[in-house]
Design goal:
single chain, 486 residues, 8-stranded mixed β-sheet, 4-stranded antiparallel β-sheet, 15 helices, globular, binds zinc ion
Amino acid sequence: MTTAIILLIVTLLFLVAFILLRTLFFREGRIIPAPLPEEDFYPNVISSALSVAIRCKTVSDHDHKKVDPHPFLQLKLELEKSFPRVHRTLERIDLGTPSLLFHWRGTSPDLDPIVLTGHLDVVAVDPSTETEWQHPPFGGEVADGFIWGRGAVDCKGQVVAIFQAVEHLIGNGFKPSRSIYLAFGHDEETSGTHGAPRIAAWMKSQGIHPEFVLDEGTAVVTGFLPGVKIPTGLIGIAEKGYLTLEISSQAKGGHSAMPPASTAIGSLAAAITRLENDPFPAHPQELRELFRRLGSNAPFLYQLVFANLWLFAPLAARVISRLPTANASIRTTCAATVISGGVQENALPQTASALLNLRLFPGDSVAFACERVRKVIADPSIQLRVLEGRALEATSKSPASSDAYRAIEKISAGIFGEIPLVPVLIAGMTDARFYTLVSDNVYRFTPLRMTPDDMAGIHGVNERISVEGLVNMARFYYALLRDRAA
Ligand SMILES: [Zn+2]
């Protein structure tokens, strides 16, 4: 063997050893669970507080004039009855909307406050599905260890759990060092244009800079990635942007017996095909931290690839692009969702148009996305237009290493066992996005174990939360406030 071949083999062996070593050390250290409150959280009391909250039909509507204000008023009164200590101790700040904002003044005014948030409104129940509900959607019935009804998970369960945690802390004589704000919007389900933005703007006007903001979000789930068998807590650290574009193509009409090479419909179809064949740039490094925290709980191939992105980034992008959910978290996605054109079978269409719905990866601006779509279509005859009110930039990213993140992690470990808590990008929208105006640490996490059935109930039928899950949520917020505001 020549020296050159021996040298090549030795180099290759070193390379393989280097890659394997990096894979071996590519994991988060053990998370030490935080001690949890031992006391009784009165499951019956908290269940009935949620029951009465569900009975208030706080349905929001994109047309604000159509929203009935009475259920919101009724909910406010019910919360006062269920949580008297909170209402005696905390100051209520009225911003002239049905949203609720409370301030629990801390003993050290120089510490940045904590904001716990959620929303009071719910989505409507489709009347055609009412018979599929095992318990009436606005009945708030407690049966088989669950509280049933619209809003049980999204998001009244969370609101009630936060109230219960604070009620308990006050009862135990807790005096927070940091100020604590409880902020509950009233229109999250309809893009939250009057609730959370007004609260966040008020905070900005007061010079309030929260240490962290915790909103509803992703939960503790199993099987979110193929091959990951243990339950995993997903914590949203950013939200994608939103953009709907209309693309349209014009052509001369005429008889379809003598058509040109391509019709308006043909040009449009070709444009869509070009977009599908040329997806937005992938950012596989976005998932590096997720896989590092999953460590040996992820399939070995993923560990190997993500521990060595310096070498395998193109492979990582290819592997992930095949999984629609994971693909959505590494790039801007673009889907043609509506198409129209043509009026008669034997007439050439004079116009054809389609809607493209894009979800923007943080860093891909609305302007960049429009420009790229234009470039990929590469057909000057195709017009492009942003639909009014349908362009929203992605949010900034919050760190997965802040004190608040670490606290959420260790308290989750106390409640759910030593599960990984991985940072994720959220494709939907929550009120949390508005709080990036005032805080760098904005997290979206529902401290609740959720099965696929539970998830189907959100905005669907048979929404329910287990009494045990609800009590654990209250314990979570109790422990979190005690940890960060002692
Ligand atoms: Zn919600």
